[in-house]
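Contributing new records

If you add data, match the layout below exactly. Sequence lines come first and carry their own label; structure lines follow with theirs. Keep one chain per record. Anything else will be rejected by the validation script.
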Amino acid sequence: MPREQKQVRELQEGSYVMMDSAPCKINHYSTAKPGKHGSAKARVEGKGVFDDKKRSLSQPVDAKVWVPIIERKQGQVVNVNDDEVQVMDLDTYDTFTMRIPEGEEFTSDDNIEYLDYEGQRKIIG
């Protein structure tokens, strides 16, 4: 699995973190001051990169969490079917099918950018 461990205090909005075994993009990050008998706590809210589900995480700032290493890749559209598009990776020349995001239109030979993590792929606009 392409991922690494970081302390919660190293996270920031716009970066990625694993929540409920799913890679999520951080939308909101806040900390609460340490109490009389405890350490500072962080509250992280995020949205699933591939499933768009909202998730949250509350941990001490010195706790370790997994951070996914999501690759940003280039591809070329080979074929377009109803709501799916066949894409060829421009580095490896692998061909695979991805769902077209709502509001997007593609034609053959269009160059696209997509996210890839452990076989999960998503076109980014």
